[in-house]
C-alpha cells in the first residue's frame, strides 16, 4: 500500500497542485473558507482524475493549465485577467466532462459504478461554470456567497462523491447500492432545483440524500478492505453522516422560515469537515488501493452500415440458415424452425399496443420514424399485415457474417429494415440484428432458448445480449430490453414482443404468422 501511495502522490501533477495550493495560501488574503474550493481545484480533483483516467502527457498539461489559472486568480489580478483565468478553468472542466462522456460512449448504461464516475466528471463542468459566475460576478439570481457555494457543491458533492461511490461499486454492486447510487447521481440536480423553485422539493431531496449517505456508510462497513485503507476510506463517509445533518437542518430552516443553521455555521462545520476529512481522506484512501474496473470492451461485431441501406443482393429464403446453432431443434416446434429458416413462406400480421404512459412519446416518435423509414410502428392497435423481402447483404459492406436484410412494410411505408447476422462468444451463439439509423446503427444482440416447445429470444440475457447503439467507433449499451416469444397454436404461429426502457414496459406487439 505504501508503494501505491507513493505512486499516486509522487507525481508531477499532484506535487504541482500541492505547491500551487501552498502558494495560494500565502498570496491570497481572502477568508479562510474560500480555500475549500481551491483545495478541491488544485489537489482533490486532479488527484482523483489521475487515479481514474489514464492521462497522457498532453492531457496532464491541460489539467495543469486549469490549476495554474486558479492559482493566478489568487494574485489579486485585475478583473478582466481574473475572468480570463476563470474561463480557462471552466474550459478545462468542460474537457473533463467530455472525457467522462467519452467513457460513457464506450460503454453505455450497463455498469452502474462506471456510469456514476462518468457523471461525476460531467458534473465538474457545472462546478466550473458556477466558479466562472462567481469570479466574473454574473447575476445568477443568487447572492455572491450562494453562487460560490454552488461551485463548491458541484466539486465536492457532485464530482468527488459520485466518483467515490462509483469506486465502491467497482468492489461490489447490490440492489441497495444501485438505489443509493441513483439518489447520489440525481441529488446535485434535485437539491439545486429545490433551492431554486421549491423548499418542499429541497427538504425531500436532502432527506433522500441523507438516507443514501447513511445506507452507503453501512454498505462501506460490510465491504472488505485491507490494512490502513480499512480505516481511511470509511472516515469520509462517517464525516458525511455528520455534515449532511447540517444540510438537512439548514433545508428545514428554509422550509419553516426559522433560522436554525445559517451560512456561516454551515461553512464552519459542514464546509471545514468536508474539506479536511472528506476531501483529504477520500483521495488518500483510494490512493492506497484503487479498485479495478470490471468493465471490458465490447468485442462482438457490429454492422458498418449507417443510414438507409441502398445496396442489396439476391433474395434469401430465411432469417437464419440453421437454427441448430442457437438451440436444439428437437426442443422447439418444427413450424417455428421452419419460419426462421424459410421466412419467405410465411405471412406476418401484427397488432401494436403502446403503453398508456408512452403514447404521447410514440406519437412524436412517429413523426421522426416515418422520415427515416426505421422503427416506424403504427400508432393504432388495429391488426395489420407486414409484408417484405429478405435479401442478401454484402459481407464487405456490412462487416459481419452472412448478413441478410428483412425489410418489413405496411402498405407502402417501411416499418423495419433489420439486417440479421450472428456471432459466437465463449461458446454461446447470439442473434446479431442491426437496424441502420442516421449516422449510427442500433444492435439487438439476442440470446435464444427453448422452453416447452416455444422459442424465447431476449436482449436481457447473459454475455453479449443487450441493445446497443453504434456511433462511429463508440458502442454504448442502451437501457432497452426486448422479450420475444414464438410458439405454435392450433396449426399457426403466434408471437409476442415486449419492450422495456429502464425496466418500465412501453410496447407490446402480438403477431400471427401463417403459411402463405
Q: Give the helices and strands as they follow along the chain.
A: HHHHHHHHHHHHHEHEHEEEEEEEEEE
Question: Going across the major beta sheet, what is the strand order?
Answer: 1-2-3-4-5-6-7-10-11-12
Query: What fraction, in percent, of the residue positions are helical?
Result: 40-55%
Poorly predicted tracts of residues: none
What about the largest sheet? 10 strands, antiparallel, barrel
Beta-strand percentage?
Answer: 15-25%
Number of domains: 2
Give the averaged pLDDT, no decimals.
Answer: 89
Ends distance: 70 Å
Structural class: alpha+beta
Number of strands: 12
Task: Output the number of helix runs.
Answer: 15
Gyration radius, to the nearest Å?
28 Å
Morphology: elongated
List keywords for this structure.
12 strands; alpha+beta; transmembrane helix; 10-stranded antiparallel β-barrel; 15 helices
Question: What does this protein structure show overall?
Answer:
The chain is an alpha+beta fold. β4 and β5 form a beta hairpin. It contains 15 helices and 12 strands. It folds into 2 domains: about 290 residues, no CATH class; about 200 residues, Lipocalin (Beta Barrel). The mean pLDDT is about 90. Helices cover about 50% and strands about 20% of the residues. The protein is elongated and about 85 Å long. It has a 10-stranded antiparallel barrel. The longest helix has 28 residues.
